[in-house]
Every structure is written in structure tokens, then in C-alpha cells.
Amino acid sequence: MVSPKEFFTQLHLVMTGKAGEQSSTVGEYEHLSPSKGLEKAIKYYKWARRLVDSAQSDGGYWAAEGDRALAAVLVAFFKQLNEKQKNFPPLVVNDGAFLMDKQAQLENWAVQLVSDHKHMWESCSHTGVGSKGSHPKCKKICEFGGLIHNICRKCSLEQYNPAPIEAIVNT
């Protein structure tokens, strides 16, 4: 578990790629109170979501997704601070999965921050249109020729699902 100060240190590292460097966006949130931080993070998330929805190009879409992923982490962090949480799960930034897809890993971190348990991701595969998944907790019906996705063994949440953050933003 990490403290709020360590949380921001990790977030600066993720956003800049260099230890000790400061991200100007992250810096705007670092010294805010929990309530002001949550309010500002929700506005940032809604703004980024509008950008994602209206993106005209791949480059614009992925840039907006980066903002939305960062905003999701900030929403989750300040939501937990508002609930008097003092320690947070760390973000592992030096593993291969993180380096391959920073935005997806930020999304996972955001969901983990607001979860009451550590998600245990397990693979689930579908073999064709209309098929049920191989995992006993999967409720999804395949709409394509095949599908492989991860779901939590404990709560059956699908990995990379922004629903927990959307629920906070839309309240």
C-alpha cells in the first residue's frame, strides 16, 4: 500500500516517464482537498469523455483516452480520500503489461482504487457467435466469431470495464 504522497509520486512517474519529473496536469491536483480534488477530477473526466466521443482521428481518440484514463485514476483516488482512505494499492509501472498499454493499466488502477477487494483476473474464452464463456462467472454472450477477455474470479467484473468510475462520475 502507498500513501497519498507516494501515489502522486507514482502518477508523476507514469505521466512523465522519468523519476523526479513533474506532470503539470497531475500537479494541479496534488495539493487539493479531497472534496475539491474530486470535484475537479469529475469535471476533467467528463471533459475527456466528451473528447473521446467526438474524436475525429485515431491520434485524437488515443490522446483523449489518455486524459480519460488519468482522470479516472484521479476520480478514484479523491473518492477514496473523501471516504477517509489513507493507503492505496500501488501501481506497478515496471512490468511488461504496463509498458505495453499505459492507458489500460491506469484504468485497472482506477478500478482497483475503488474496489473493496483485489481483483483476481482470469481468462475467459468464447468460441463463436452466441456462445457462452468458458469461465463459470462469465455472463457475456459473444456477439462476434470469438472472444477472449478477463474477468475477476471474485466479483465477475470484466477487466478494463470503466463502470465503477462511471458510477462515481454520474452520481
Largest sheet: 2 strands, antiparallel
Spans of at least 5 consecutive residues with low confidence: none
Oligomeric status: single chain
First-last Cα distance: 28 Å
Rg computed from alpha carbons, rounded to a whole number of angstroms: 17 Å
The neighbouring-strand order within the major sheet is 1-2
Domain count: 2
Report on the structure:
The chain has 2 domains: about 5-115 and about 160-170, no CATH class; about 120-155, no CATH class. It is mainly alpha-helical and about 170 residues long. It contains 7 helices and 2 strands. The chain starts with a helix and ends with a helix. Helix 3 (about 35-55) runs antiparallel to helix 4 (about 60-80) and helix 4 runs parallel beside helix 6.
Essential attributes:
mainly alpha; 171 residues; 7 helices; two-stranded antiparallel ribbon; 2 domains
List the helices and strands and how they pair.
Layout: H1 4-16, H2 24-27, H3 34-54, H4 58-82, H5 96-100, H6 102-113, E1 121-126, E2 147-152, H7 163-169
Helix pairs in contact: 3-4, 4-6
Brief characterization of the structure:
The chain is mostly helical.
